[in-house]
Amino acid sequence: xxxxxxxxxxxxxxRGNAMNLSNAMNxxxxxxxxxxxxxxxxxxxxxxxxxxxxILWFGxxxxxxxxxxxxxxxxxxxxxxxxxxxxxxxxxxPDDWRTLAISFVAGIAIExxxxxxxxxxxRYNYTPVLGFAILAVPLAMGCAWVILLAWxxxxxxxxxxxxxVMTAVDLGLDPVTTRILDLWRWRTPGRYYGVPWxxxxxxxxxxxxxxxxxPPGRHNxxxxxxxxxxxxxxxxxxxxxGFFVPSSMLCLLCGAGYWRWRASSNVLIxx
Length: 271
Fold this sequence. Notes:
This protein is mostly helical. Helices cover 75% and strands 4% of the residues. A hairpin with a 2-residue loop joins strand 2 (133-134) and strand 3. Helix 2 crosses helix 4 and helix 5 (159-180) packs antiparallel against helix 8. Mean pLDDT is 87; it is low at 6-10 and 31-40.
């Protein structure tokens, strides 16, 4: 009797363990299926975003080479490209989302102060081209700050050098954004394509503070690609209108930036 009872109890325990193990395997299998499906959906979402970004990018460049301007009623494409580029940046660097969010908020705050007081860039006002605005500053400008700051952070430069690169970027961008795309207007135009030199002094000072506070970016090809393509977009639009100096500057920055990005990535890999 005792042996039989022990055997029955042993068989029951074995069946119970086998059932528990089977249930655990089933749960694990379902979890894996959900994870794979989630990754699959996430991958397709990113692919669709890149396709939309590419359509906006080529459409923007093509319209200026073919027609010399953004087609009537298509101004919404400029802010959309910035929003899609920013979303791609956030998706590509999920561990960096806090710094990216800080870049967005800081960029909007700086622009609000700049529009309201003229400090530190000079007196300027935004046009309706970039869409929805808060306190006279389009939210899409926060996207521009995110993309540019993330791109320069990818280069892993000392603070002074990073601020200098950011200022050089603006030397290439501002003539295109103001004289061609009419995104904002200076109340007192300067001699450099209508941009006052106070703007660049302000950019250097603000960039110096931001890069002193923000950490260097982790090596990320997608983040770097978004920033580089934005610079190339403005370079090609400028070229379509004969703005050779700012266009050449942006192209040189893209080339030098790529060299620096590759060099810094090799250093990180070797260490």
